[in-house]
Amino acid sequence: MSLKKRYLMTPGPTPVPAEILLSMAKPIIHHRTAEFEETVKEARAGLQYIFNTKNEVLLFASSGTGAMESSIVNCFSAGDSVIVARNGKFGDREKQIAETYGLEVIDLEYAWDEVVKTEDIARELAANPAVRGVIVTQSETSTGVLNPIKEIAEVVRAYDETIMIVDSITGIGAVACETDDWGLDVVMTGSQKGLMLPPGLAAVSVSEKAWRAVERSTLPKFYFDWKKYRKSIDKNTTPFTPALTLIQGLNEALKLMQEEGRENLIERHSLLAEATRQGVEALGLKLFAPPEGRGSAVTPVWTPEGIPSGKIVKIMKEDYGVTITNGQDDYKDRIFRIGHLGYFGMFDIITTLTALEMALTKLDYDFEQGVSIKAAESVFLAART
Amino acid sequence: MSLKKRYLMTPGPTPVPAEILLSMAKPIIHHRTAEFEETVKEARAGLQYIFNTKNEVLLFASSGTGAMESSIVNCFSAGDSVIVARNGKFGDREKQIAETYGLEVIDLEYAWDEVVKTEDIARELAANPAVRGVIVTQSETSTGVLNPIKEIAEVVRAYDETIMIVDSITGIGAVACETDDWGLDVVMTGSQKGLMLPPGLAAVSVSEKAWRAVERSTLPKFYFDWKKYRKSIDKNTTPFTPALTLIQGLNEALKLMQEEGRENLIERHSLLAEATRQGVEALGLKLFAPPEGRGSAVTPVWTPEGIPSGKIVKIMKEDYGVTITNGQDDYKDRIFRIGHLGYFGMFDIITTLTALEMALTKLDYDFEQGVSIKAAESVFLAART
How far apart are CA A298 and CA A301, in angstroms? Predict the structure, then answer.
């Protein structure tokens, strides 16, 4: 067809609503003004709402990786022991960053289709009481697998000198993340995910326990020095030039998210994920994530036998304008991933399932056309409207 | 679901692509400038491409009804005879306008689900050789019924003093309209239809034969005086303040349409309409338009027995954010209409059919979920990608 609309169904960047785009298109203001202080003040309150926390949430002009690195250099010193529990590409990255700064990593490695086991962390903590931090990815972008953050934090909480660091870059806004209730010391996210913004902004919430760790840290830092950000944010400003328009957009995003409501937001993502899962299973495909680790941000699916997932991704994009992604690293051509975190509604799932059905038809995969839509419709019909 | 994206599936206004919205958001220029003359020049060429004509296409800051009225007051005089062939609400309006200006209307009235019959026009013309004009709606917005403009124009062409006036407001850009090859003297459209713009701009192409009629016309006119517009457009300007940003947007629209190509544009609409028809028929619903009068701009569908169409429209809009329309006048609760002219791709049809399936499920209509998607997929899969 001569007109292909584009549908971005990836776990970041995610589509940006028109309201946010328009708020970022406003004339540039200067950042050392009362007007910008109001903007920062509004962002602080909104972020605390979305992070479920009374902690201060710091904002960086950086990608999510910058936020990850900031948590290592601010909370630890060279030679400190940390547990990195990893079951995907972004867990691997946490380990790399920790090692780059000379931390002793107690490495809990899992297969990508497993969830991190709380008992392993409990065992390692008991055996190594000097461990200063436990680092876990909540929602693995590389696989969509969800780790049991709440349970793990319960274990970590008993250790006064050990902080719980959560990479919730693909989690916040899509899955429950009760920062204060669960006792999460450091939680980070990036703008191009559940916050529905373009990339370029990262946010990190820091608990009092984490601030005590910051006091002990001797690793060198300048741009990512949390203390500078805390001092500035107390005055509703930033230590360095902020990503001005992204923060304007953030406020619009936070307004939309607050209007929708935290619980509704999580419920919506849960429905989108359930409809996607029911849809692909109706096609006879197998879900990659184990039942106990199925998140609402990304749905990873094993490709049918004999069809490299890249072929599905290519047809969906080139013929139908629907962008999903295949796997990463070892899973490159073995899985595909449908992102549905952020500005997505039910018909984005319907569109994706239909494009998937058409791609599978072209690849001679045997199934009954329309069954995935029937399955997704049933999920949506059973939900509140 | 707490986030409802909105889908506008009506036969006008139609969705406006981001490229066009952005072009209309440029800083306002003055209209008595060389810059605006360039804008008009570009619009003239683009409109001639889309109208398939070497005739000048005049632009009015008005709705489509303004263009309809302009064709009456410019081409005729009080007491002139015209044939109005009408099978819907907009045909009715042509008759009202003609009568308002004291024309003698030879009224060919058809049921809304019939097409205008060429032989009736041939007969009336033969019986009334003094008839000055034949007025027909190409694509009836009220019903989606397509009238055989090409055939009718062949008949009218034989009469030197009779012009063929075509309301193609819902036609241009969605169905073939070969202004010069078919010998159409006056063809009009509105901006909020196939041109993918907001409402507020109308365009009328005028043949040499029609200009001769204009010379004879004695009806009073000022704002809609075509001669004023012709004199101005020769200098790439307008007699009165133009709808400046809409003309900027028009040029962007014409660029998109030229990039897509006239033939592709018509083929795309034809596919969207075919998928819609196959989809609703798979649900066991009956098409309103007769087989010989099925256009590509709007698909009208008889509502299932016992379910007023307004109920379907309401659930689709309120529960799923998908706006279609019900019937007009006598058909208000008896049909619903799915618009697909303008900026629509295959997944807009999929979305609409899915929302329709869910609404019908809620209304206890008996069918197998997913069948309409299967039918639509088959249409899209059989087409060139």
Answer: 10
Q: How far apart are CA B146 and CA B138, in angstroms?
A: 6
Which tokens go with B319? Answer: 């529960």
Give the total residue count for chain B. Answer: 385
Helices and strands of chain B, counted as H and E runs: 14, 13
Averaged pLDDT of chain A: 97
| Ranges under pLDDT 50 in chain B | none
Whether residue A373 and residue B378 make contact (CB cut-off 8 A), yes or no, is no
State pLDDT tens for residues A49-78: 999 999 999 999 999 999 999 999 999 999
Q: Which residues contact A33 (CB under 8 A, 6 or more apart)?
A: none
What pLDDT, on a 0 to 100 scale, did the predictor assign at position A359? 98
In the numeric block, which tokens belong to residue B164? Answer: 């063929």
Contact B345 A321 (CB under 8 A): yes
Place of tokens 């010069």: B180
pLDDT at B384: 79
pLDDT of residue B57: 98
User: How close B113 comes to chain A (CA, Å)?
Assistant: 30
Order across the sheet with B335-339: list the strands.
B286-287, B298-302, B335-339, B325-326
Rounded to an integer, what distance in angstroms lies between the CA atom of residue A52 and that of residue A178? 5
pLDDT score recorded for residue A384: 79
**Cβ A374–B369 below 8 Å, yes or no?**
yes
Distances (CA, A) of A63 to A59, A72, A94, A112, B75: 11, 15, 14, 23, 65
Supply the pLDDT for residue B198. Answer: 97
**Inter-chain CB proximity A271 and B374 less than 8 Å:** no
Beta carbons within 10 angstroms of residue A332's beta carbon: 12
ipTM of the complex: 0.91
Write down the pLDDT at residue A288.
97
**Are B347 and A371 an interchain contact pair (Cβ–Cβ within 8 Å)?**
no
Distance between CA atoms of residues A283 and A281, nearest Å:
5
> Cα separation of A30 and A35, whole Å?
8
CB contact under 8 A, B358 and A369: no
In the chain, the amino acid numbered B334 is R
From the list A345, A374, A378, the residue facing B1 with the nearest CB is: A345
For residue A239, give the 3-state DSSP assignment. coil
Residue A168 has pLDDT above 80, yes or no: yes
Chain B residues whose CB is inside 8 A of the A5 CB are 345, 347-348
Partners of B355 on chain A (C-beta within 8 Å) are: 347
Hey, CA dihedral for B227, B232, B234, B237, is it positive or negative?
negative
- Is A227 in contact with A214 (CB distance < 8 Å)? yes
The helix/strand/coil state of A205 is strand
Q: Do B346 and A1 touch (CB under 8 A)?
A: yes
pLDDT, residue A214, reads 98
Q: Which residue in B has a C-alpha nearest to residue A270's C-alpha?
A: B1
Q: Name the 3-class secondary structure at B334.
A: coil
Among the partner residues B371, B377, B383, nearest to A354 by beta-carbon distance: B377
Integer Cα distance of B319 and B194 in angstroms: 27
This prediction has a pTM of 0.94
Select from A5, A319, A345 the Cβ nearest to the Cβ of B347: A5
